[in-house]
Specification:
The chain is 32% helix and 29% strand. By secondary structure, the chain is α+β, with helices and mostly antiparallel strands. The chain has a domain of 74 residues. It starts with 11 loop residues before the first strand and ends with a strand. Bound molecules: S-adenosylmethionine (SAM).
């Protein structure tokens, strides 16, 4: 959630973010900070892609619900309120081209300018 060192001039052609967003604290709007920080490290044509576990709206089975509750209670994950729509809205604020799709209980995304 904090910016790191200054990005190199050229930037990275791709950055992957697999199973990280659901760990970050706060709402999907709060997590935009992390996306905005990562964007600084992308090249002009670079792509950011990844996957995140959706919250309650995904309709997790009893074992999934229990696991998410334990992880959220312990502060390992913060995703009970994460929705596909909020993810899409948040990414669209940062990138021109946003592809988001749901696969079972997770959201996959590919974004670029
Ligand atoms: C399930 S792992 C994903 C690993 C990743 N896909 C990889 O290939 O290395 C979740 C990752 O999120 C990181 N993480 C969890 N909470 C974080 C936070 N608040 N800020 C930054 N990173 C966090 C953990 O350190 C861990 O590396």
């Amino acid at each position: 959630m904090q910016p790191s060192s200054e990005p190199a001039d050229t930037g990275y052609d791709s950055i992957s973010l697999f199973h990280v967003l659901h760990c970050l604290p706060g709402t999907m709007d709060d997590k935009e900070t992390a996306i905005a920080n990562l964007k600084r490290y992308l090249s002009k044509t670079g792509v950011l892609y990844g996957v995140t576990i959706l919250g309650d709206e995904a309709g997790h089975n009893p074992i999934g619900r229990r696991l998410l509750k334990v992880y959220n209670d312990k502060g390992i994950m913060h995703n009970l309120g994460d929705t596909l729509d909020d993810l899409q809205r948040m990414l669209r604020r940062q990138f021109q081209n946003v592809e988001v799709r749901r696969h079972n209980k997770v959201a996959l995304f590919v974004v670029r300018d």
